[in-house]
Amino acid sequence: MKTVDSSQYRIYTVMAVMCAAGVVLVGQLIRWQIIEHHRFRALAEAEHQDEMVIPPRRGEIRDRNEYLLAADVIEYDLSASPKIISDPYATADRLARLLDIPRDELVKTLSSDATWTPLVQGVPQAVAEKLVEWDVVGLQVEPRAKRVYPEEDMAAHLLGFVNSNGNGFYGVEGYYDSMLRGQAGLRTGERSPFGEIIPLGASRFVPPVSGATLYLTIDRNIQYLIEAELEKAVVGYGAQRGSVIVLNPKTGAILGMANYPTYDPNNYSVSSESLFFDPNVSEQYEPGSVFKIITMAAGLDAGAVSPGTIIYDGGYMEVGGRVIYNWDRQGHGNVDMTDVLAKSLNVGVAQVATALGKDRFYTYVKRFGFGHLTQIDLGSEGPGTLKTPREANWYESDLGTNSFGQGIAVTPVQIATAVAAIANDGLLMKPYVVQRVVDGQREIEVQPTVVRRAVSNATAATLTEMLVTALEQANSEALLPGYRIAGKTGTAEIPIPGGYHPTLTLGSFAGYLPADNPQVLVLIIIDRPTSSRWGSRTAAPTFRRIAERLVVLLDIPPDDVRLAQNQEAVITD
Amino acid sequence: MSSNTMISLRPANVIRRLPWQIDSKAALGFLLILGTFSLVGWLYLTQASVVTTTSYRIDELRLELDQLKNQNAMLALEIAELEALPRVETRARELGLQPTTNVRFLPVSNYPLGAEEEILAGKSAVYGREPLDMYPTEPVPSSWWVQLLDDFAAWLEGK
């Protein structure tokens, strides 16, 4: 009886174990078949489904006259799987003839034990087609987009570049990357054992969408001109670097923007990374005497001074406990405001600033856009540095030094747009470099944007007249016969820890013409020239050389011809 | 049929009585069904063949389109490289041309303005002149108001 009980117990135990195993199995089946049904189905489908991402074609960049500045071309990379190449010697023979590569080198590569090895990069389309035609098992030809800049280093800082992964960096390429890159296409379908999509199987094709084409405000002729002249100036004056901005003051459209030294975006990898930033929008500098235009504009607009206001220049002045001297350390006696600009008197503008008072002075400085981004459509823009009385590190003496452009840091594009506001009847415009965007059937024309009124129309007109007279009184090297030019030279000392460099300076000139109806504004910056420390000897003559060719390119006749034409047109009407 | 019915075992009788023996109507029906299935099968195969051929053709055309686009891009680039200004300048100098240094403008009376100039003049008017009235001169705010605004800005910036 005891034996029977024992065998029954064993039977029950076995049954219980089997039931438990059954429950586990059923549970697993429920999990696989019901709970994780979708996951396993997707896995099963993925086994014989093929999915291919089709890269889009990156949009082109063209200048205002539709000349090509950047475009994608397709190159092909050739690689090999030596293990599955049946006859490496014959294959090497054919490749050596086609690619002009030493045969022995190819034999060595194709006979190796490597699973995969790259052979040649950047094969042209005709060669790639030939290789595909051969249909050699073990040779692969992969297409790859390459960004090409046909004008080489022209407008490199403005354009930026595209890396090997197709990502745009710096300049227009960086700022408009999402617009330029387009949308990738997709091709999915059932795959045959040979790896091809079965035509009758379920398949889907989403075509790639090419990126938008951008038409810039840049004129490549102007760009070429300013780059050539800038290079000559930097080399000729023994400077470290230089920048030029040419813009239409009425719209804020940048017509040309150059830096020297520069780099070739086709081979950006061989250049130093420090060259990639565009100094015109990213780097800040102390503007020096060019900033006197802003101080004088504020003084005139607020009614603190007028062109005829006479002040006494004793050669120095104390502001906030700091003594300010003129550049020549001389006193010029009684001078009017035009003399202050013509002789570039630090003491004169410091008196204007103190007459304005700190609140009104900095209100105007902000109105001209300093201390803020101009919001130009280029990557890596800097806001400059502007200390205001509300900040702990501002001192009363800053009012004096800021009035002649010391102790304040601006970007070249900030100073160019601020001076352009004077040329544009007092209206501050937002600078921009993209004029038109064509995205498939869609076309967007970028309209000029007024940021705000900086000064009144009357103030702008008065100051323009003063700037013209000041340049003529100073017999500036910026003057171009036949044209009335409004502008101002600047020579800024270079800040170093603990003060300013004893000898090195930064020469600049901002000017526009024709003074009565400004069509173009040019800003020149010559950094650390060695032939002369004065902007009047470096930046001003560079301005004239550029201006005399700009008037030809922009078809601006001399003032007498133009005004005679206008008068004749009025009489005819 | 009674259980004692005699069953003839002659081959002809056996064959006649086999279950697959069908009459002419059934045979016709069978043939019709067979014909219909054959037709449907033929249509399917024809369609499949057409679809496959078309699919391959579409692939070929797509590839051809891509290649043409690539060739077009290459040609556009080649044109751009040939038009590049350094090259144009070098070529012009080789031909004995020089940059303009002395430009003289000759006023021509009653010179008709072209359409382009009129458009440009219009644009200039829109961009340059009209905003004058739209953006009146703002009065410079008094110092307490500037200070209040600066305080508010500093508070917003967390200073």
SSE arrangement:
The complex is a heterodimer of chains A (573) and B (159).
Chain A: H1 2-35, H2 37-48, E1 49-54, E2 61-62, E3 68-80, H3 88-99, H4 103-110, E4 117-123, H5 125-134, E5 139-148, H6 156-159, E6 161-162, E7 168-169, H7 171-175, H8 177-181, E8 185-190, E9 203-206, E10 213-216, H9 220-236, E11 241-247, E12 254-260, H10 279-282, H11 292-302, E13 311-313, E14 316-319, E15 322-325, E16 333-335, H12 337-342, H13 346-356, H14 358-367, H15 396-403, H16 412-423, E17 427-429, E18 434-439, E19 442-445, E20 450-453, H17 457-473, E21 486-496, E22 499-513, E23 520-527, H18 535-553, H19 559-572
Parallel strand pairs in A: 2-10
Antiparallel strand pairs in A: 1-8, 2-3, 3-4, 3-5, 6-7, 8-9, 10-18, 11-12, 11-23, 13-16, 14-15, 17-20, 18-19, 21-22, 22-23
Helix pairs in contact in A: 3-4, 9-18, 11-13, 11-14, 11-17, 13-15
Chain B: H1 11-17, H2 24-83, H3 85-94, H4 115-129, H5 131-134, H6 143-156
Computed CA radius of gyration of chain B, to the nearest angstrom: 47 Å
Return the average pLDDT of chain A rounded to an integer. Answer: 91
Given helix and strand content, the structural type of chain A is alpha+beta
Query: Any idea what the shape of chain B is?
Result: elongated
Share of helix of chain A, binned:
25-40%
Poorly predicted ranges of chain A: none
In terms of DSSP E residues, the strand content of chain B is under 5%
Coarse structural class of chain B: mainly alpha
In terms of quaternary structure, the protein is: heterodimer
Largest sheet of chain A, in brief, is: 7 strands, mixed
From the N-terminal CA to the C-terminal CA of chain B, the straight-line distance is 115 Å
Largest binding interface between chains: A-B, 54 and 48 residues
Q: Please give the count of helices of chain B.
A: 6
Main β-sheet description of chain B: none
Our Rg estimate of chain A from Cα atoms comes to 35 Å
The ordered H/E elements of chain B are HHHHHH
Overall morphology of chain A: elongated
What is the number of E strands of chain B?
Answer: 0
